[in-house]
Amino acid sequence: MTRDGNTGGLTMGVEEEFLLADPATARAVPGARAVLRRAHHEASAADGSGYKAEFLSSQVESATGVCTSLEEVRRELAEDRARLVDAAREEGLLLLSSGAAVLSDGRPPVAEGERFRRISELFADIVDDYQVCGCHIHVGVPDRETAVAVVNRVRRWLPTLLALSVNSPFCEGRDRGYASWRMMEQLRFPAAGMPPRFPDAAFHDAEVERLVSYGALIDDRMSFWLMRPSPWLPTVEFRVADAAATVDDAVLQAALGRALVRRALAELEAGVPEPELDERAARAAVWAAARYGLRGHGVDPVTRARVPAGELLDSLLRHVAPALEETGDTEAVRGLLEVVREDGTGAERQRRAWARGGPRAVVELLAAQTDAREHKRA
Prior knowledge:
Elements: E1 3-4, E2 9-10, E3 12-21, H1 32-39, E4 50-53, E5 59-63, H2 70-90, E6 94-96, H3 114-123, E7 134-140, H4 144-154, H5 158-165, E8 170-171, E9 174-175, H6 181-186, E10 192-193, H7 201-214, E11 224-225, E12 227-229, E13 235-242, H8 247-270, H9 279-292, E14 297-300, E15 305-308, H10 309-327, H11 330-343, H12 346-370
Parallel strand pairs: 10-11
Antiparallel strand pairs: 1-2, 3-5, 3-6, 3-7, 4-5, 7-13, 8-9, 12-13, 14-15
Helix pairs in contact: 1-2, 2-8, 4-8, 5-9, 5-10, 8-10, 8-11
């Protein structure tokens, strides 16, 4: 996932995590092993594309291959979701793209594998019912030094990407009062939340190694920072978004992620000074985004000002406008954002469904949105 010489853009890849639910009870249930067996497309060792288990047996994950255009991202996401939806249906289950389990049938077993067993032992009760899912965006960069420099420059915008992606207001049958309860669950871990500023790749890698040596992480793939240099691909990895309710929501995150990286690379080349973040304001910005999504106030971690979340989104769009123009994605992003502004974020849609019919209505909405063949948006 590096530069693409044909489009002048940067390559992208998307990882999506899903929950499995019983249609009779609307509860998240184990079933990953059987669903993955039916999907017949194990993850590739080369780029991770395909399907694989996630931490709990009520979760599955898919990953696209390396994509060079938003159209390619959309097609692969739709195809991956369709195959998993069909595999789940054959097992009598629903596939749900939600940041957290609306209802759960107890504590699902940990998925098979030595790494998952070690995670369960290390983090104990924090992960016993850790049924949260994200949408991770990979964008290609030339090398790890560049990756670290890009993350430093993009950090300012991560809370706004979270506010745009919120899709987990409910967990265990309750409205938790947050648009992204998933984020609040993740903030309990070491190496979570806003990534620190690192002066170079060696410093970054040494810090991760120290966290592993402390026993706070099991390995260098374990960090929960909202963005990081990928530990195994030539990419930067956005880990900020809740599981995307629809294919469109995932495509929007990919488009904005690539544009932010492209803008950061241009600033590096031009010698533009890096923005200085106030770390306390940055933590407050992540919290505000998780609490309110786009319908409340946010925090600008550079100016340290309380700002309406919608204005922060407008600022992000102005920032990436040149990059979107260069890759021909301006109109696509405008259209996707118009839908979010009209229909609301995933969290808002979930809450409207709850008001109509409680948790079952939310799960039915999530199932319909997850399958691109059934969910059509004007």
